[in-house]
Amino acid sequence: MLSRITKFAVSAVLLVTLGVITAAAFTKTVTIRVEGMKCAKCSASVSKALKATEGVEEAQVSSDKGEAVIKYDDQKLDEAKLREVINSTGFKAVAEKGQ
Amino acid sequence: MVLAAVMIAFAPAGVLRQETRAPQFEFKDLNGRTVRLSDYEGKVVLINFWATWCPPCRAEMPDLVRLQREHAKDGLQIIGVTYPPENKARVRKFARSLKVNYPIILGTRETKARFSSEETLPLTVVINRDGKVSEIISGILLREEFDEKIKPLLMKNLEGEKRNAKSNH
To answer: Are B102 and B72 contacting, i.e. CB atoms less than 8 angstroms apart?
Structure first.
């Protein structure tokens, strides 16, 4: 009985670990430089549009640094799509540094 | 109780809550016509605060023009209110280039502060058919937000009209 419980517990732990590893493998972080984002009043739209995009898990936009740090699921979208979303807010995504 | 009433009366400008009656205003638009919020009673009004120097404001305006064109028949009325510093000639040129199909008025900081204390631009105040503030949308107006927060307000009238049409027959 005890060994059956142990086997079950080990299997459960393995499954959860595998799930976490798989999810982490799909999550990417990218920093995209955003040109023209000088107005702090306006930069909220970039963050809003990114967060509303399916596959974006986190988006931190800084008008001071002129960049957006985005955590996303690369199975659902790619960097080109992220740049497209930024451009749709009236700013210009100019380059990105993969992490 | 008295204290609560005093606090409400002296609440800071721009702290409008949902279902609060929208503050009335009267301005001249770019064409010199008087625009009063009360003129649009019974319509769903979007007051869009924007500026020519604000990239997201410029980016969302073609969508607002499209929404005004497509939903005017449903009772949608957009009013554009600029945020300073602004230049009338530049605003007029920009509005013409986009063929803006709703009134644009030159606002002040105070105009915006009467509706919201938020610093964000663009900012859209949604007023329902009863003249009450229904939503304050910060940043660019997303399609999903229009579908979720504004379309139901427009549909309300259509449902009412259908009911009236049935009862008249």
So the answer is: no
Helix (H) / strand (E) containing B60: helix B55-71
Tell me how close the Cα of B52 comes to any Cα of chain A, in angstroms: 12
pTM: 0.81
State whether residue B42 is helix, strand or coil: coil
**Structure-token pair, residue B83:** 């945020």
**What whole-number distance in Å separates Cα of residue A92 and Cα of residue B32?**
36
Query: pLDDT per residue over A67-97, tens digit each?
Result: 999 999 999 999 999 999 999 999 999 965 5
Q: CB–CB of B104/B95 below 8 Å?
A: yes
Give the model's pLDDT for residue B57: 97
Which chain B residue has the Cα nearest residue A86? B56
pLDDT band at A39 (very low <50, low <70, confident <90, very high): confident
Paired tokens of A60: 């931190």
Q: Enumerate residues 6+ apart whose C-beta is below 8 A from B71.
A: B154
The tokens of A44 are what? Answer: 């909220």
Mutate which of A34, A38, A42 to test chain B, going by most B C-beta atoms within 10 A?
A42
Q: Give the integer Cα–Cα distance in Å for B145 and B94.
A: 25
Give me the interface pTM, i.e. the ipTM: 0.79
Contact B140 A45 (CB under 8 A): yes
pLDDT in tens, B135-157: 999 999 999 999 999 999 999 86
Contact A42 B119 (CB under 8 A): no
**Residue located via tokens 């210009």:** A92
User: Does the distance separating the beta carbons of A48 and B140 come in below 8 Å?
Assistant: yes
Q: Which among B134, B128, B130 has a CA at the least distance from the CA of B154?
A: B128
